[in-house]
């Protein structure tokens, strides 16, 4: 039975976030079908991505608040708030010694409750913080303001959209699709992992192993070059005297930076449409095509400047770790009758750049 890679990775990503926040898994990796926690998030994101009449006619905002998606969002958010409120209640009971579970978990909730005990944070502020942390992987147009020495977060939904899907998940999915399409590259990743982990005592890939897995990182880099999760970045020209390709761009004009096209520029990348992780291993290549770039802008899958992706460092640890965990000691086979070249690498662009056809593969344990 094929596993839908995107679904499995997405559940794992959710569990990573929930464990950082309150030391619990919120998604069941083995249960098929809809997940209760995801069921709390997805309706909010769906409503967020819909247009409101007041987007075009701001004076009609009161009507949206009464009948539009803003009203439905508050109903869905109330359910999520209630979920976090229960988490707070249970943790406080455990800390008082009257509930079950561990008294101290050294997670974000513990830190927030300590601030609460010092009267530096209200319960509602804790709930707001947990909610924003949950969405931060999903949200794209968002601003975080720091108020009163503690985070109070306001989400500013711009007039475009909310990313209802998550960047790390699609990147892992693209990497798996390319590795299954190129079995010889998959073998290289697996051999590198086997060699690296044979030197240690663990069967599991750990974050500390990542420093010894250059080919794995090259695969992630090549995946981001060909399939940047966020392919288009909107910007507004902020100064006078800007020109692009000889055309003057007036101040205030909107421009769109096309990371997808930059990654496939034949002037920069030989055989631009081919999946060749080795190009990132050539002598000096790593220096020249580092994510932060040099002075040129030939490789910027996380954007650039003041608005550069703040999740970059986290993504550059979590994406390789997720990918390595998927392929280490598990062989992935394509569904019966499917050849590597049958994998559909066409993309579709909604809020992130996704595979048009979800990737399914059959895991076979090699332990
Ligand atoms: C492979 C994974 C990821 C990719 C390819 C990616 C890519 C990007 C890109 C291209 C931008 C726009 C940057 C710009 O405007 O110059 C961005 C913005 C952003 N990313 Fe990521 N991202 C990833 C993962 C993450 C993660 C894991 C988080 C949070 C934990 C995150 C949070 C954000 C936020 C909050 C912004 C908006 C920053 C702003 O507008 O000031 N991203 N990301």
TrEMBL record:
Keywords: Heme, Iron, Membrane, Metal-binding, Monooxygenase, Oxidoreductase, Transmembrane, Transmembrane helix. The keyword Transmembrane applies. Pfam families: p450. Heme binds at residue 309. Its cofactor is heme. SUPFAM superfamilies: Cytochrome P450. Belongs to the cytochrome P450 family. Coiled coil: none annotated. GO terms for molecular function: heme binding; iron ion binding; monooxygenase activity; oxidoreductase activity, acting on paired donors, with incorporation or reduction of molecular oxygen. It comes from the Eukaryota. The chain crosses the membrane at residues 126-152. This is Cytochrome P450 76C4.
């Amino acid at each position: 039975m094929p596993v839908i890679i995107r679904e499995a990775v997405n559940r794992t990503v959710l569990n990573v976030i929930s464990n950082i926040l309150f030391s619990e898994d919120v998604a069941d990796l083995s249960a098929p079908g809809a997940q209760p926690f995801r069921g709390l998030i997805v309706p909010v994101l769906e409503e967020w991505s819909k247009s409101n009449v007041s987007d075009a006619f701001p004076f009609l905002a009161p009507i949206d608040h009464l009948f539009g998606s803003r009203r439905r969002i508050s109903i869905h958010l109330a359910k999520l708030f209630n979920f976090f409120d229960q988490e707070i209640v249970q943790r406080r009971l455990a800390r008082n010694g009257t509930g079950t579970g561990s008294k101290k978990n050294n997670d974000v909730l513990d830190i927030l409750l300590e601030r609460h005990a010092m009267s530096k944070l209200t319960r509602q502020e804790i709930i707001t913080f947990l909610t924003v942390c949950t969405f931060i992987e999903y949200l794209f147009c968002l601003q975080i303001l720091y108020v009163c020495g503690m985070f109070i977060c306001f989400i500013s939904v711009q007039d475009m959209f909310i990313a209802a899907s998550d960047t790390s998940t699609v990147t892992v999915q693209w990497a798996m699709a390319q590795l299954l399409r190129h079995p010889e590259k998959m073998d290289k990743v697996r051999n590198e992992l086997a060699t690296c982990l044979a030197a240690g005592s663990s069967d599991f890939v750990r974050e500390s192993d990542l420093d010894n897995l250059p080919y794995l990182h090259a695969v992630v880099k090549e995946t981001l070059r060909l399939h940047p999760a966020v392919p288009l970045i909107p910007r507004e020209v902020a100064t006078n005297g800007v020109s692009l390709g000889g055309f003057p761009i007036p101040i205030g004009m909107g421009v769109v930076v096309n990371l997808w096209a930059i990654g496939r520029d034949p002037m920069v990348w030989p055989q631009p449409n081919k999946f060749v992780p080795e190009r990132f291993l050539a002598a000096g290549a790593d220096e020249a095509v580092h994510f932060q770039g040099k002075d040129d802008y030939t490789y910027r899958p996380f954007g650039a400047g003041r608005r550069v992706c703040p999740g970059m460092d986290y993504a550059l640890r979590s994406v390789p770790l997720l990918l390595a965990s998927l392929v280490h000691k598990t062989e992935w086979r394509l569904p019966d009758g499917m050849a590597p070249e049958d994998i559909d690498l066409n993309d579709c662009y909604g809020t992130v750049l996704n595979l048009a056809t979800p990737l399914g593969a059959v895991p076979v344990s090699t332990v």
